[in-house]
Every structure is written in structure tokens, then in C-alpha cells.
Amino acid sequence: MQKLVQNFIRTTNAFDVDGALSLFAADAVIDDVSVGDSFVATEGVRRYIERFFVGYNTCSKLLSMESPDNFNAVVRLDFTGDFGHEIGTLTIAANSAGLIERIDADLE
């Protein structure tokens, strides 16, 4: 999970949408309660990354990560961008192929 999380941060910080998408399963879901919406499958995940990472010039910094097993992690991130500064939590679930199948996101 550590490598998957690091790759997610690296690709989104570089605004590499295709690189970030390569980390997700085709049927992945991002549920972000802070924006009140879910983003489903490749096109939904693309919209999320383009809107909230590229669109806001978001830079993420890892604050902490708890990973009880090889398929789940709770990640705390420091986000900065055109919106200012926020701290958020991503609860990430990966499938057996090592791809992200779900992210539950929220801001503190």
C-alpha cells in the first residue's frame, strides 16, 4: 500500500492524470463527502482528478499512513493549492491486482 499511496501522490502532484488513472481499477469509486459527490469508473475518477487536483493546482504531502493489511490504508494528507490549505483523510481500498478500487475522502 505504501508504494501505491506514494505513486498516487507523485502522479497527482505532477498533474499526470493518465499516470494517476493507471493506479485505479476500471470500476473504481471515489466518494468525497467534502464535495458531496461520488465519482464512478474511469471517467468519474478522471473528472475528480482533473477538477480537484489539476483544476485547483493541488499539492499533496503525506502526513501519516496506517495500513492494517496489503489492501487497505488510511492516509492523512496536507493539501495546498488555489483554495488555500486543508488537511484531509483518504481511506483507500485496493484490489488483489494492486489497483485502487475505492477511496473515501473527507476534509477535516
UniProtKB/TrEMBL annotation:
Top-rank taxon, per record: Bacteria
One Pfam family, short name: SnoaL_2
InterPro entries, per the entry: NTF2-like_dom_sf, SnoaL-like
Record Gene3D superfamilies: 3.10.450.50
Domain SnoaL-like: 5-82
Protein name: Nuclear transport factor 2 family protein
Species this chain originates from: Rhizobium laguerreae
